[in-house]
């Protein structure tokens, strides 16, 4: 769902800015590239620390709710879309939150992996995310034929709210306990040497759990 929301945004925004705001493609590209670079630099410094401090699943929920609020605000303020700086500031805010959220999502996906098959498992997570991006891009045409821009923004917000709800059911501490038992069972059956489990911050950011 998170990939679907991202894919919908990436496919929708160039069309919206050109058709609705009369921007050129280069103007939109300049805006997004600047926002992406700035957000990436800030994420390198702060995103990992925030994920560990607050908790990975909790911070994902916070980010997705804030992004959803951003899209909802855009949907409810069509008269301000053409106001100088309004849409630019909105894109920067959404891009910052999305980049920080991606860092937390990647960290969570890695912590969900069993060490012995981590590469395959993590790849599957990324494939699912990328599949959502592709599906969303392919749905833009049919959706745009039925919905106005405000409704499209609200649809994106709805997807993100669903992500925030679902991520609340992810408990990293309990999951790591299950993986620990799985590792112990594997070692008992195969006579293999145990693979040390990494120390993972709890999903509420309250210290470290093995």
What does this molecule look like?
- By secondary structure, the protein is mostly helical.
- The protein has one domain (2-209): Growth Hormone, Chain: A.
- The protein has helices at 2-19, 25-54, 56-76, 86-111, 118-146, 149-167, 172-190; strands at residues 200-201, 208-209.
- The chain has a two-stranded antiparallel ribbon with strand order 1-2.
Give a nutshell description of this structure:
The chain is an all-alpha fold and 210 residues long. It contains 7 helices and 2 strands; from the N terminus they run H-H-H-H-H-H-H-E-E.
- The number of helical elements comes to 7
Report strand %. under 5%
* End-to-end distance: 30 Å
User: In total, how many domains does the architecture comprise?
Assistant: 1
Determine the CATH topology: Growth Hormone, Chain: A
- Overall 3D shape: elongated
Question: What is the CATH architecture assignment?
Answer: Up-down Bundle
Q: Going by CATH, what is the homologous superfamily?
A: MFS general substrate transporter like domains
Q: Indicate the radius of gyration in whole angstroms.
A: 20 Å
* Order of SSEs: HHHHHHHEE
Number of strands: 2
- Fraction of residues in helices? over 70%
What is the CATH top level name? Mainly Alpha
Mean pLDDT score: 81
| Uncertain regions spanning at least 5 consecutive residues | 199-210
| Sequence of strands across the biggest β-sheet | 1-2
């Amino acid at each position: 769902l998170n990939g679907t929301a991202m894919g919908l945004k990436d496919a929708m925004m160039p069309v919206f800015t050109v058709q609705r705001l009369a921007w050129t493609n280069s103007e939109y590209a300049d805006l997004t590239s600047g926002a992406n670079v700035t957000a990436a630099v800030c994420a390198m410094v702060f995103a990992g620390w925030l994920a560990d401090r607050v908790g990975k699943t909790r911070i994902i929920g916070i980010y997705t709710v804030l992004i959803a609020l951003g899209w909802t605000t855009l949907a409810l303020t069509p008269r301000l879309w053409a106001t100088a700086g309004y849409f630019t500031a909105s894109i920067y805010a959404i891009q910052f939150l999305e980049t920080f959220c991606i860092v937390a999502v990647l960290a969570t996906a890695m912590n969900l992996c069993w060490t012995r098959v981590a590469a395959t498992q993590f790849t599957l997570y990324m494939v699912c995310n990328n599949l959502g991006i592709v599906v969303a891009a392919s749905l833009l045409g049919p959706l745009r034929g039925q919905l106005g821009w405000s409704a499209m923004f609200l649809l994106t917000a709805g997807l993100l709210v669903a992500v925030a709800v679902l991520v609340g059911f992810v408990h990293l501490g309990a999951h790591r306990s299950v993986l620990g038992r799985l590792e112990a069972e594997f070692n008992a059956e195969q006579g293999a040497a145990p693979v040390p489990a990494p120390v993972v911050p709890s999903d509420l950011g309250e210290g470290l759990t093995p």
